[in-house]
UniProtKB/TrEMBL annotation:
Biological source species: Variovorax paradoxus B4
Protein name (record): Transcriptional regulator, LysR family
Keyword Transcription regulation: yes
Keywords: DNA-binding, Transcription, Transcription regulation
Pfam family, one: LysR_substrate
Occurrences of domain HTH lysR-type (ranges): 3-60
Keyword Transcription regulation set for record: yes
InterPro entries from the UniProt entry: HTH-type_LysR_regulators, LysR_HTH_N, LysR_subst-bd, WH-like_DNA-bd_sf, WH_DNA-bd_sf
Family statement: Belongs to the LysR transcriptional regulatory family.
Gene Ontology MF term list: DNA binding; DNA-binding transcription factor activity
GO cellular component entries: cytosol
Amino acid sequence: MLHPPRHFVYLDAVARAGSIRKAAEKLHVASTALNRKILEIESDIGTPLFERLPRGVRLTAAGEVLITAVRRSMADMRSAESQIEQLRGLVRGTVRIGCAESVATDLIPGTIAHYQQTHPGVQFQIVSGVTGNLAASLMADDVELILVHDPQPSETLRVISAIAQPLCAMLRPDHPLAKRATLRLADCQKYTVALGDRSFGSRRLLDDVMARSRIALQVALEASTVQTLKEFTRQTGAISFQFQIGTLNEVRRGELVSIPLSDRALAHSQLVLAARAGRMLPIATLSFMETLVNRLAALPG
């Protein structure tokens, strides 16, 4: 197994922990020894990399530049190791994915389970969250792929696959609107609704439509997780909103009904699979990526 230089490991650990003591505990080294090593690195470079604070440390501007290069070097080493394994006829390693909560409870686990039937040597690390945070994790090489809704276009983002994902209203089957083929957001004004908090991309879309159209929704609940919104809809009959991919499980089980919203601003969202532009991905990630692209292509449109 290829190991990155120890000073790379030390710098990365201290930057992530924000504390020399906490980083030392994680690395199982003495904090005095770790501090001495950091001071040596700073002396060699000729500038401080960390600002010493009363309760820890924080990267300086020079430290931010260096840690970006360190993490990319570490990621490239993992990729090289994966390619060497491939030359030996093996596909193994760890695939790190950041994904929207809408795909974290059904699509991604199901795709991984299918993939591991033929690739048992590949492990996975999954992080779920909102698009902006996951895109930042991708740029920091904390994850290798992201599957998110409507990321901001960027030269540093390489789009691998993108599929249409309309925003849908989720209702109980006994709701008065449940038989409709499509809905406009204005149709929901007469009924109580549950909304994701303002970190949700879907919430920003809804807020924009409400502001432009002067729609006033009867909000009974705001929540920070999709599962809370779905459960509130099941128990109270309030309308909640979710991208189509995140509704498939409940619709399949007959628990909820999913109806696309036809408002122009809500009907053209995309689910995007992306990597950092210029990054050399490990073989295991490339292998799984092909499976995931095929799975996305097979989704109902």
